[in-house]
Amino acid sequence: MDSQSIRAILENRQIGIYFGTVVVAGISALLLPGTTTLEAGVNPALALMLFVTFLQVPLADLRQHFARLDFLAALLIANFIAVPLLVAALVQLLPAGSMERLGVLLVLLTPCIDYVVTFSHLGRADARLLLATTPALLILQMLLLPIYLGLLLGEDAAGLVQFGPFVHAFVWLIAVPLVLAAVVQLWAASSNAITRMSTVLGMLAVPATALVLLVVTAAVVPRLGSAMNAVLHVLPIYVAFAVSAPLIGWSIGRLFRLDAPAGRSVTFSAGTRNSLVVLPLAFAIPGAVPVLPAVIVAQTLVELVSELLYVRFIGKLGPAPSLSDAA
Q: What span, in angstroms and rounded, lies between the C-alpha atoms of 124 and 145?
C-alpha cells in the first residue's frame, strides 16, 4: 500500500479516529492520575500539527489561489466581519466580565485552519482552495483577536488578556512551523529524498490532529467537574453558533456568486473554529484554570458532532445563481 492510499484511508476515517481519540483520552483521564501534566505537551503537539498542515499548503501556488479575489473576500468577510457580529450577539447571554464570556470569545472568533480542510474535502468543498488560505487565516486571527477582545470586553480585557502569549503563539505556532514547511517544500523541489520525507509528513495530518486531541482532552477532562456549571452555560451558545455560522457563510458565498465547491469552503470555514490553537492562550491567562480550558474544550466536542452534520448537509448545497438567473 503506497503513501497516497494510506493518507486517503486516514482522511476518510478521520471522524472516527478523532472521536475514538477523544473517548480514549477521556476515559484515561478519569482512570489515571496526573493527566493534567500533559498541559506542557499542548504547545509542542500544536506546533507539529500546524507544521504538517502548512506542509500541505502549496506555497509555490499561493499566488494563483490568492488570485481568486472573490473567494478570498467572501472568506475574510465571513470570518472577520459577519461571524464576529454573530458572536457579539451570542455572548450577551453570558455575564459581562466572566470567564465563560472570555472563553466563548476566544474560541468562536478564531477560524479553524487544520482539520477544517479535510472535513471540507469530505463535504465536497474546494479543500485545496481553503488550504491555501490557512496561513493568512491564522495570521489575521492572531492580529485581530486582541482587538476584538478589547471591543467586546472593554476594560475587562486589559486585566484578563496579556499581549505576551499572543506574541509567543504567533512565533511558535505560526512563524516557525510556516518557515519550516516552506524550507521543506523548497528542498523537495530539488531532492528526491526530501520529496519522500515530505510525502511521509503529509500522511501525518490526521495523526497529528489526533495527538493534539489526545493531549488536550487528557489534560482538561479532570478539570471539567469543577467547571461543569460554566460548561452548561455555554453549550446553548455553541449549538446556536453551529447552526447559524454555516448559514451565514453560505449566504456570503452566494452573495459573491461563488461556485458550489468554493461556497461550501466558506461555509465550512465559518462554522469551524480554532479551539485547539487558542487553548494555550487560555492557560496563560491568570485565574483561567479550570473554567477557561473547560469552556474551550467543550466547543471542540460540540464541533466534532456538528462536523458530521456539515459533511452530510453542506455537501448537498448547490451553486449560487448566475447573473442571468438573477436578472
A: 30
Q: What are phi and psi of 273, to 5 degrees?
A: -110, 170
pLDDT in tens, 35-67: 989 988 988 988 888 888 777 776 666 666 666
- Cell 474551550 locates to 296
- All three cell numbers of 246: 454555516
This prediction has a pTM of 0.84
Find the helix or strand (DSSP H, E) in which 234 lies: helix 228-255
DSSP string for 154-204 = THHHHHH--HHHHHHHHIIIIIHHHHHHHHHHHHHTT-HHHHHHHHHHHTT
pLDDT in tens, 69-128: 899 999 999 999 999 999 999 999 998 878 899 999 999 999 998 778 878 888 889 888
Residue 35 near residue 29, CB atoms below 8 Å: yes
Torsion angle, alpha carbons of 165, 229, 86, 247, to 10: 110
Structure-derived torsion over alpha carbons of residues 133, 135, 140, 146, reported in degrees to the nearest 10: 140
| Rounded Cα–Cα distance for residues 183 and 163 (Å) | 29
Q: Which residues of 186-207 are buried (b: 16+ CB within 10 A; e: fewer)?
A: eebeeeeebeeebeebebbbbb
Q: Which cell numbers hold the place of 177?
A: 512551523
CA-based end-to-end distance of the chain: 52
Q: CA-to-CA distance for 16 and 122, rounded, in angstroms?
A: 13
